[in-house]
Design goal:
This is Peptide S-glycosyltransferase, SunS family. InterPro entries: Glyco_trans_2-like (IPR001173), Nucleotide-diphossugar_trans (IPR029044), TPR-like_helical_dom_sf (IPR011990), TPR_rpt (IPR019734). It holds the Pfam family TPR_8. Keywords: TPR repeat, Transferase. GO terms for molecular function: transferase activity. This protein is of the alpha/beta class. Among the domains are: 177 residues, Spore Coat Polysaccharide Biosynthesis Protein SpsA, Chain A (Alpha-Beta Complex), CATH 3.90.550.10; 136 residues, Tetratricopeptide repeat domain (Serine Threonine Protein Phosphatase 5, Tetratricopeptide repeat, Alpha Horseshoe), CATH 1.25.40.10; 82 residues, Tetratricopeptide repeat domain (Serine Threonine Protein Phosphatase 5, Tetratricopeptide repeat, Alpha Horseshoe). Helix content is 60%, strand content 9%. It has 33 helices and eight strands.
Length: 656
């Protein structure tokens, strides 16, 4: 019995993708039929070089019509149909031959959808129908998301379909570059909408229409359309799990959280092991500040078994993404040890998912113990590539661990050292007071270079941090002559005047750009324990601007444990924003570290009254009271050493 396989494709302007697709089937299929619908690039030449039979066809906004042209030309016993942005995975050739030798009418195969950007994507599996017997009555139907399974069943009620486990496709069409090039979303929506007018009761078509509405962020209409399709679709339909998930996501996108949770609850009745539903349920519970509900959902997600391909599971929903959310929850409740455990589990589950890395570094606090942080992370991760070294160096830089950041930047090969990383290296040198080395890097950046303004600003800071008034004045005047934005110019003038008791300019009214620059300079001054310089610069900011950004400034002082200044700026902010719970919490933290515990407690209570849904304020207050209890018991035990009760209570408190 012959088992000849014909690959049938329709293409247009696919010279980039087509070569990869055809190379993947070389030696696997017996003939290649390609219908070109109007290519203006080298697509036809690529196809012909691969030995394909190519026929041109005038595009009529109908995918089925074009596909059926390829079927008419196919001489094989079996039809394998692919898109140009797909490829057969290595090792699938044997699966194809095995499937063609079996007594089935067609096959679903696993497809791995790559989502994201080239080189940094995630893999999401799904099931698609791609292999069937070549019979004249089997022809595609539907202008888009063309159907063949229903057609086969109409002609052969006894037709047997199976999942071909050993055939795997890889789909590149959801990569950002591909989507933007093809403008797929708008094209698909227009075609489906036109077809629905002809087939209003086609539920599969309505499902695809709802998905396209979702993809263009028309969430409310997508939810209504998908719900209508679900109500009229057999739950045994292969895409039914995805349909229910899309309903939940559409309601979520429309901020209809109660409806989204209802859809998730319904979906779990049909598919109780569907990890995606638990994961998205957790995200929705977070939006509702239902932390216990979110925790329960994410815990269920990580306990789910391996997901079947027809669920089209979202990458990481039962692994690294759920672990990451559990870690964030632990941080909300002040449990850094538990947070660290979950962040590590997330990173171990997917090393390419790097969001946990900054959080891990922040918890390890490399400024306090850089060597321990480095050793701990190097046990967890192998920073062996240039990209990995740049990434961890940048994370350390962001956390103010400039020595560690510089060590990793220094390990980069010269060819891998881009201009931005060179600038970060220079800043690391400045923060280590290695001024001459920093100046050599900064002086190498020419006037017309994009990094020139940042280089000149950091050159000024080299001398400003060393309180060289003459040099700072000259450099500032030269920099101002270049022509700067109003905010940057104002900050440069502030730097020029801040080393003098009396400046030449009035306090500056600054916008976001200027205050971002000021905050960065203050942070770097405090990192070098130059409190006077930081306060001198801030004195040049107009009072109204200072009040607007006072909470951000308070947080910078708190980060470097300048608690008196943190308290002062938190109070300044509260003069204008007395209903800001975060500001009251910041003030409470500053007072607590200044040993004004009673006042700190009042601040935490005020934060709680303004935002009772935020558990971190309860945690702050509880820990404050625990500390107060231990101090009080210690004092009582010292004053009354012969009374056992105080010692017993002190020991009890120490155990808790």
């Amino acid at each position: 019995m012959s088992n000849k396989i014909s690959l049938c494709m329709i293409v247009k302007n696919e010279e980039i993708n087509l070569a990869r697709c055809l190379q993947s089937v070389t030696g696997t299929v017996d003939e290649i039929i390609i219908v070109d619908t109007g290519s203006t690039d080298q697509t036809i030449q690529v196809a012909e070089q691969a030995g394909a039979q190519v026929v041109s066809y005038l595009w009529q906004d109908d995918f089925s019509a074009a596909r059926n042209v390829s079927l008419e030309l196919a001489t094989g016993d079996w039809i394998l149909f692919l898109d140009a942005d797909e490829a057969l995975e290595p090792g699938s050739a044997g699966g194809l031959r095995q499937a063609a030798a079996a007594d089935n009418e067609g096959y679903f195969v696993k497809i791995i959808n790559l989502i994201g950007v080239d080189g940094n994507y995630e893999a999401c599996p799904d099931l698609v129908f791609r292999l069937f017997r070549n019979k004249p009555e089997y022809r595609f139907r539907g202008a888009i998301h063309e159907q063949i399974v229903d057609v086969i069943l109409e002609h052969n009620r006894q037709a047997a379909f199976q999942i071909a486990e050993n055939i795997v496709l890889r789909h590149y069409g959801y990569l950002d570059r591909q989507v933007s090039e093809k403008n797929k979303k708008n094209r698909n929506l227009a075609i489906i909408k036109k077809q629905i007018e002809c087939e209003p009761n086609n539920q599969a078509l309505r499902y695809h229409y709802g998905v396209e509405l979702y993809r263009i962020d028309n969430f409310a209409e997508a939810a209504a359309e998908l719900t209508r399709a679900a109500n009229n679709t057999d739950p045994g339909t292969i895409y039914y799990p995805k349909l229910l998930r899309y309903i939940a996501l559409a309601h979520y996108g429309a901020r209809q959280y109660d409806r989204a949770l209802e859809a998730i609850a319904l979906g779990l009745k049909f598919f109780p092991n569907y990890a995606d539903l638990y994961y998205y349920g957790g995200l929705i519970q977070l939006e509702l500040n239902n932390y216990a509900g979110a925790f329960d959902c994410f815990q269920h997600a990580i306990s789910m078994p391996e997901q079947p391909a027809y669920y089209a599971p979202f990458s990481g929903s039962r692994g690294f993404r759920a672990y990451y959310q559990l870690a964030r929850l632990a941080e909300v409740f002040g449990n850094e040890e538990e947070a660290l455990r979950y962040y590590i589990l997330s990173l171990q589950d997917n090393a390419a998912f790097t969001l946990p890395l900054p959080a891990i570094v922040r918890i390890l606090n490399p400024r306090e113990d850089p060597d321990y942080t480095r050793q701990a992370l190097e046990k967890l991760c192998d920073f062996c590539t240039g990209d990995a070294k740049r990434l961890i160096g940048t994370v350390y830089f962001t956390e103010g661990a400039y020595r560690l950041a510089f060590e990793y930047f220094e390990q980069l090969e010269p060819a891998a050292l881009d201009d931005y990383t060179t600038m970060l290296k220079a800043i690391c040198l400045i923060q280590q007071k290695r001024i001459l080395e920093a100046l050599r890097l900064l002086d190498a950046i020419p006037l017309n270079h994009p990094q020139y303004p940042l280089a000149r600003m950091n050159e000024i800071l080299c001398f400003w941090l060393n309180k060289n008034r003459t040099k700072v004045r000259r450099l500032c005047e030269d920099f101002l002559a270049v022509g700067l934005s109003a905010d940057t110019g104002a900050v440069v003038t502030m730097l020029k005047d801040s080393l003098y008791k009396r400046g030449s300019a009035p306090p500056a009214l600054l916008g976001p750009e200027g205050m971002s620059l000021v905050q960065d300079i203050v942070l770097r001054a405090l990192d070098l324990q130059e409190l006077q310089l930081a306060e001198s610069l801030l004195s040049k900011v107009a009072p109204e601007t200072k009040k607007e950004y006072a909470l951000d400034i308070a947080r910078i002082f708190a980060h470097y444990e300048y608690w008196e200044q943190a308290r002062r700026y938190a109070e300044l902010y509260l003069e204008e924003q007395p209903e800001d719970a975060a500001a009251w919490c910041q003030l409470g933290e500053a007072l607590q570290h200044s040993r004004q515990t009673a006042e700190a407690g009042l601040c935490y209570r005020r934060a709680l009254s303004l935002a009772p849904q935020q558990p971190q304020y309860y945690v702050k207050l509880i820990r404050l009271y625990q500390a107060m209890r231990q101090e009080l018991l210690a004092e009582a035990a010292r004053r009354y050493p012969d009374i056992p009760l105080f010692r017993e209570l002190q020991e009890e408190a120490a155990k808790q």
